[in-house]
């Protein structure tokens, strides 16, 4: 199928060529804007940001990059920013042989940045001979360049995902709002960052999700056609409210606006996962991986799905892929170990648990495996350690642990605690293979009902 793959492109992060080398956030931002503009063209396959950005700072052959990403074209370039002046070079390259199809140099004032982004995207579209109903445009974007600069700085820190950097990102978004509170993009970015703070227990969950909800609603009220606002609201309804129907409506709205957005496909896939619609979930996740093939979390989620659907051999391949993309990737060794446990291979499971680098899941994994190996004393010690350390924030994992050990009453007590705490991990309840000892108990069906999940 050569013609379809001809209409495919990856936008590599533009290189910061500024004298002080302090404009990386700006060159990243420009690349991301171009990627977003191009992905609005229905007949063009545009690779997602995580995959494109995974080549940042690596001097890899463009032909290899094209092969890894499965694209026919690559857009790359550089940015020099000096005060109010910017110089941008852009090259469109044919991946298979490295041939330069087109290149251009632009010298502009910062104020005309949005026009410049539209112009570069337009030139690429023309070179690829795509039929355009309307030129992609950033019309909805804020035209305040100072606010935009602060958003880009916020995004740069958010990407690092740890507690301190996400907090830094939130500060930058608030600074941008102080300059321009009418920009939907800042509100959506704020909703995203604060949701993550809540989900990771960096801040109080209830307060955090409420703040995030208000920011997402504000983004939607300012620009109803901006998909990200709907996406963030859907995420809050999924992970915090357990409002499956409401979340689906918002995900669908986002998807209609941007059908090729990997993040939205991941979100709606997670919703189908939570509600036990395995086939729909697998279809969404497959499409997500096609668009953003080098994003470890998508492979992790797909493996988790396969495991729930009872295909543990296949699940393991996805966990291995996540680890190949990022050897430090959290939960991948744990989930691989869980699959081995479910396949009746506790010795292999133990090896994986030892490699898990997120402490709470390593500790959890050992408690499961020692029980499966029949090493009672160690299993009890591990359970005790885990309970003392994590009983206040990881009720759902404790429920899984008790269920796996056949301690049904204790498992249901922890599930109720998780429900009271609105523990986001409850989205994994339906079909959870670690809870299969609870299935025959009438309390299991009652809990599904309480969660508004289909009882099958």
Shape descriptor: globular
Oligomer: single chain
From the alpha carbons, calculate the radius of gyration and give it in angstroms: 23 Å
Q: Roughly what fraction of the amino acids lie in strands?
A: 5-15%
Q: Give the N-to-C terminal Cα separation.
A: 41 Å
Structural class: alpha/beta
The biggest sheet, with number of strands, parallel, antiparallel or mixed sense and barrel status, is:
6 strands, mixed
Unreliable stretches covering 5 or more consecutive residues: none
Percent of residues in helices comes to 55-70%
The count of β-strands is 6
Task: Give the mean pLDDT.
Answer: 93
Descriptors for this entry?
single chain; 456 residues; alpha/beta; 6-stranded mixed β-sheet; 22 helices
Topology:
Layout: H1 2-6, E1 8-11, E2 15-16, H2 24-38, E3 45-46, H3 49-53, H4 62-69, E4 73-82, E5 85-94, E6 99-109, H5 113-127, H6 145-158, H7 163-179, H8 184-199, H9 205-222, H10 227-241, H11 244-257, H12 262-274, H13 278-291, H14 296-308, H15 312-325, H16 332-342, H17 346-355, H18 359-372, H19 376-390, H20 395-404, H21 408-420, H22 442-450
Parallel strand pairs: 1-3, 1-4, 2-4
Antiparallel strand pairs: 4-5, 5-6
């Amino acid at each position: 199928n050569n013609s379809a793959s001809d209409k495919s492109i990856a936008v590599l992060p533009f290189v910061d060529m500024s004298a002080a080398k302090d404009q990386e956030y700006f060159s990243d931002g420009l690349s991301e804007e171009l990627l977003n503009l191009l992905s609005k063209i229905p007949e063009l396959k545009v690779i997602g940001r995580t995959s494109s950005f995974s080549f940042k700072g690596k001097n890899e052959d463009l032909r290899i990059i094209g092969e890894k990403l499965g694209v026919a074209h690559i857009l790359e370039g550089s940015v020099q920013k000096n005060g109010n002046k910017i110089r941008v070079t852009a090259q469109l390259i044919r991946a298979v042989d490295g041939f330069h199809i087109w290149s251009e140099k632009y010298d502009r004032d910062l104020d005309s940045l949005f026009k410049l982004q539209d112009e570069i995207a337009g030139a690429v579209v023309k070179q690829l001979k795509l039929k355009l109903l309307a030129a992609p445009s950033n019309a909805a974007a804020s035209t305040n360049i100072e606010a935009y600069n602060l958003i880009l700085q916020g995004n740069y820190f958010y990407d690092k995902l740890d507690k301190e950097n996400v907090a830094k990102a939130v500060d930058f978004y608030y600074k941008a709002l102080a300059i321009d509170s009418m920009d939907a993009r800042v509100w959506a970015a704020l909703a995203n960052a604060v949701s993550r703070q809540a989900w990771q227990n960096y801040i109080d969950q209830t307060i955090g999700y409420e703040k995030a909800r208000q920011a997402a609603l504000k983004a939607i009220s300012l620009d109803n056609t901006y998909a990200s606002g709907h996406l963030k609201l859907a995420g809050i309804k999924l992970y915090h409210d357990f409002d499956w129907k409401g979340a689906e409506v918002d995900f669908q709205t986002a998807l209609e606006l941007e059908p090729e957005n990997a993040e939205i496909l991941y979100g709606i896939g997670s919703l189908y996962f939570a509600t036990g619609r395995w086939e729909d979930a697998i279809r969404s996740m497959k499409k997500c991986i096609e668009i953003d093939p080098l994003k470890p979390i998508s492979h992790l989620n797909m493996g988790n799905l396969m495991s729930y659907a009872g295909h543990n051999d296949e699940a393991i391949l996805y966990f291995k892929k996540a680890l190949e993309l990022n050897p430090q990737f959290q939960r991948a060794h744990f989930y691989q170990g869980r699959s081995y446990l479910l396949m009746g291979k506790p010795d292999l499971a133990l090896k994986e648990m030892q490699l898990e680098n997120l402490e709470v899941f390593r500790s959890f994994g050992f408690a499961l495996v020692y029980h499966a190996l029949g090493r009672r004393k160690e299993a009890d010690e591990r359970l005790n350690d885990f309970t003392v350390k994590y009983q206040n924030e990881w009720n759902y994992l404790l429920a899984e642990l008790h269920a796996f050990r056949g301690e049904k009453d204790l498992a249901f007590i922890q599930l109720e605690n998780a429900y009271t705490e609105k523990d986001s991990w409850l989205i994994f309840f339906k079909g959870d293979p670690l809870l299969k000892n609870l299935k025959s108990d009438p309390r299991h069906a009652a809990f599904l009902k309480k969660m508004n999940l289909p009882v099958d």
